[in-house]
Amino acid sequence: MALPIPTNLPRQEDVISKILAKLDGATYESLNASIVVSWRVELDEAIRLNEKQLHDRIHGDAVEFEQQLTSAKEIQVGLQSLSENIDSLDKSVSDPESGIIPVLIRNLTAHQTLAQESLNADTLYRSLLHLSDCRTELLSLQSLVDEGNLPRAAKSCEALQHLLDTAPSPLDKAKIFQVIKTSLDVLSNRTQELLSGTFSKSVAISPSEFVIRPSIHAPQSNISYSLSDVFASLSANSAISHLTTLRRDVLAHYIDYTLSQPTSVTVKTEIEFTGTSFHKLSHVPSPPNTENLLTRLDNLAAVLDFLKQYLLPSLPISQKESFPKSLCKPMGSAILTHLLEPSLPSSLHLLPPFLNLTKKAVRFEEDHIVGVLGGASNNRDIKSWVDGVSGHYERQRRLSILEAARTIIVEIDETSSTFHAETISAQEVNDEISQIPATSDTEGGDAWNLDDDKKSTGNASSIQDESGWSFEDDVIGVEPESTDGSNVPPPQSTKVQSTDDVDPGDAWGWNDDEEPLVDDENAEETVWDDPWSDAPSEISVPARPPAAPSITSVPTETVTRPDNFAAMNSHSSSAASGLEVRQAVDSRHTRSGSRSAIKEVYLVSSRTRSIIRIVENALQEGKELISSGIFSYSPTSTSLPGTLILQSAIQVLNLFRALYTVTFSPRLAQSEQSMLFSNDCFYLSEEIARIATYERGLLTVKEELVECRDTMKLLSDSWFHDSIDQCKRSIEVILSKAEGFTETADQDRFDECEGAITQVLREIRGTAHRWKPVLAKSKFYMALGYAVESALSNILDDILALPDIPEVESHRLSELCKILNSLEGLFVEDTSLSSFVVSYVSSWLKFSYLSELLEASMADITYLFEEGALVDFEVDELVKLVRALFADTPLRTTTVNKILGGHPVRQ
């Protein structure tokens, strides 16, 4: 096998190509005869050489060449013979007259025509035969319908429909076939309509009667057929529709109604005029006041027995199980919804009859719902509900209790009904403090005027505790002693006793030995019958009120002073009245005091009494339920019987906390209302504490009661202090108008500051007027003390922050400070006794001394400092005040250095 020559190798140029290349390269001038002759000679030579090569190649293997030549000739002869045979065969196969294929086609066509004619004849025969059957069945159906034999007519409809469904396909488009179909539809619909009417007559149900006819006569015929035949003859859709309607009517008229209304059910059999019998169930209303709920289950059992005996056996096979089971769930739900749940009693003594009812309901479920209707024995809703009946009873009672509480809580009390509750406060009585004489304006005039030469006999009774008159401790404060026990102790309530009718005049514990009996209507009038009560609109601003100890007399042997200061203090009887008060206060802590119980009353909303009554009733009901043992232990229950009712008492209090502040938020924006709400919470906390302490059988909720008590106490304290903070903010806003009491030498600025101080005084007195009828005495003075302390502290901070106080400004600032000295009257109950303002206003003495220090000389300040009368001031505050009041002199430097050495230690 010769290898192919690669295309990239050069090929030998043939003769033709050479000659053509020469022809192509010849020009008109170079082309002549000689050149053409040479090309011809060259071409002839090439032809001769090719012929010679062919001849040499043939003769080189002549034998093989001859063989191939012979074979080629034979092949040529065979090919010619084959062509002739093919032409002859083609003529014998394809000749139109005698060819095989044309003859075969003609024969096959004739056979096909014959076969089609045979098939058509057979199809026609079978179609006619089928049509004959259909016609016969249709005529039979027509006659049955006309006779009124509806059950057989229904079966005939099914047979004719089967014939139509299995009809030969050629009949589908036949007109006669369509006519038969139309006739069948008409007759079938008429049959079903007549069957539906027959069923309605056989099973007639109305709100008052339920009639079942076992057999019925066809209209205008003597033919009768049974109810089961009617059921069997109805179409599947029609049967389902009728049974659905029947189930709905049975549930509405004979199950729900029987369970929800007192009725009397009767079942009887009667005979019609045609001689056929029928069964009738009827019910009529019964008197409700004589009904026993157990009869409702008996009536329902009679209904089910009626269905079991006369209806269920006639049901078609397809509905014999499904229809009774479809009644199980609705019937169980109806018993729960219309009988058991509405019959849940609202009190413990009604539980035994109800429990008998639940037991009978469980038996009814087992005998009738499971036994008769075939309900699932492992899915018994009534038994599951009855097993948890204690929880259902308690949840209903809890809902009722909470609803009653909610109604009371959100009720708008137009009359603002209140009552006075009693609390017991511990008061420490100190004999020594009571001997300090009260300040008298009429006898001594102005005890604080350094320029007054008159004798000043009054001194302020100031009481403070060991922490330097601080009243941040709410447990036991410091109070002045009173010989008759009428002075007010620091705020501490130890026990609250609710009194239904308390004398409002006894609001401060004056009538402890009397019977507290008066109407709440007189509370507003008598609660303000105090000798020191001031109407909020009447504001007295004395020029020099006796609020602080006098420093107008200093012993000459103690401090060397200028002559004018010695002349100013000519009355030695009042020389050390400030020190006497300080010594009395200091000695108070070293002398033994006695503690007595002081009864106080405070205002409480009447709704709290109702809430406590609900709480007590709920707890009592829970205890009775637990002790009765009427409910047996249920494995499905997560708590013991009675626990939910006990816990509902806690939830009532939680509901009060959640609803009241939201419902009455606009009202609580008023300070007296917020204080009243604080009292309500405090009263509730004390009542809860009483219940938790003295009530027995509350172990399951005792911790929750204690927690609720603490929560109510915390809520009371929060609203109490929020009201105080609201008052403080009002005071701070008013004092901001004074702009730090700067430049009071200017008359306009002084008027602005004086207006701010006066407005603060009016605000505090108005707040006291609103708080006094509401709060207990101890709480009232504590709250009022916080308000006054806020005003004094702000003024102290502003004045002590002034870097320079000229003489004119110092006098005016002193006058401004003394305006608030009249607030001391708010802390006096008896003019014959001393004020106890220091017990509740920790900065009172400091503020009182400040008004005098602003006008005092350097010698006065030095004397008071050495005697320990200025211990309320910090050393830095005194140094800053001295530097602001006095020019830089050696005397001021000496005084400052002495002050920087610290307060003297009293021996």
TrEMBL record:
<dbReference type="InterPro" id="IPR046362">
    <property type="entry name" value="Zw10/DSL1_C_sf"/>
</dbReference>
<protein>
    <recommendedName>
        <fullName>ZW10 C-terminal helical domain-containing protein</fullName>
    </recommendedName>
</protein>
<dbReference type="GO" id="GO:1990423">
    <property type="term" value="C:RZZ complex"/>
</dbReference>
<feature type="domain" description="ZW10 C-terminal helical">
    <location>
        <begin position="756"/>
        <end position="899"/>
    </location>
</feature>
<dbReference type="InterPro" id="IPR055148">
    <property type="entry name" value="ZW10_C_2"/>
</dbReference>
<feature type="compositionally biased region" description="Polar residues">
    <location>
        <begin position="428"/>
        <end position="442"/>
    </location>
</feature>
<dbReference type="GO" id="GO:0006888">
    <property type="term" value="P:endoplasmic reticulum to Golgi vesicle-mediated transport"/>
</dbReference>
<dbReference type="GO" id="GO:0005737">
    <property type="term" value="C:cytoplasm"/>
</dbReference>
<feature type="compositionally biased region" description="Acidic residues">
    <location>
        <begin position="511"/>
        <end position="532"/>
    </location>
</feature>
<feature type="compositionally biased region" description="Polar residues">
    <location>
        <begin position="457"/>
        <end position="467"/>
    </location>
</feature>
<dbReference type="Pfam" id="PF22766">
    <property type="entry name" value="ZW10_C2"/>
</dbReference>
<feature type="region of interest" description="Disordered">
    <location>
        <begin position="428"/>
        <end position="555"/>
    </location>
</feature>
<dbReference type="GO" id="GO:0007094">
    <property type="term" value="P:mitotic spindle assembly checkpoint signaling"/>
</dbReference>
